[in-house]
Design goal:
Protein Transport Mog1p, Chain A, single chain
Length: 175
């Protein structure tokens, strides 16, 4: 009888301390999770070098060099200031926080503004404002690196939508 009690306690200990691994796909907001924004097409997924290079070509090398596990890309359509716009979300599972931070450091253009105000996304986040007509926000949190690009809407309203997506993903990672 004592052996069964000890075995039961061990099983409970293992089950109670085991953390559920998040999947990058589960972090992608659904239709209208961000009000007015719906997915266009299916989610693109890469789980190996060949798949990744087929999706984003040479741009994927930094992820490969730093041990990516899964790359997820979803495109959205929504309205900003009465104009139909597109947004692209990328979430990359980099296997651990050190790899995610390294990718964040290596993918910077050098012209970004750190996003440090209260309520920012991720452990570190930045906003690329140097693009001609787009806003891009990237951040890292835990073992994930994420990038949000809002196309053809370089307005305060556009930046706020990109921030909303970033915060939504960051909160999903932290849950």
């Amino acid at each position: 009888m004592k052996n069964y009690v000890i075995l039961g306690l061990l099983v409970c200990l293992v089950m109670c301390t085991e953390t559920e691994q998040k999947d990058a796909v589960d972090l992608v907001p659904g239709d209208n999770e961000i009000s007015g924004w719906t997915r266009t097409g299916s989610v693109d997924i890469a789980e190996n070098e060949t798949q990744l290079l087929a999706l984003i070509n040479g741009e994927g090398q930094v992820f490969i060099d730093n041990g990516f596990v899964k790359f997820v890309r979803q495109r959205y359509q929504g309205t900003v200031s009465g104009n139909q716009r597109e947004l692209e979300l990328r979430i990359i599972d980099m296997n651990d926080a050190e790899n995610a931070e390294t990718v964040y450091d290596e993918t910077g253009f050098g012209s970004e503004t750190p996003w440090t105000e209260d309520g920012h996304a991720g452990t570190e986040a930045r906003i690329e404002e140097g693009l001609i007509s787009d806003y891009m926000i990237d951040f890292w949190e835990d073992r994930f690196y994420a990038r949000i690009t809002l196309f053809n809407e370089k307005t305060v309203a556009g930046l706020n939508i990109a921030k909303l997506f970033a915060i939504n993903v960051s909160e999903a990672i932290a849950e």
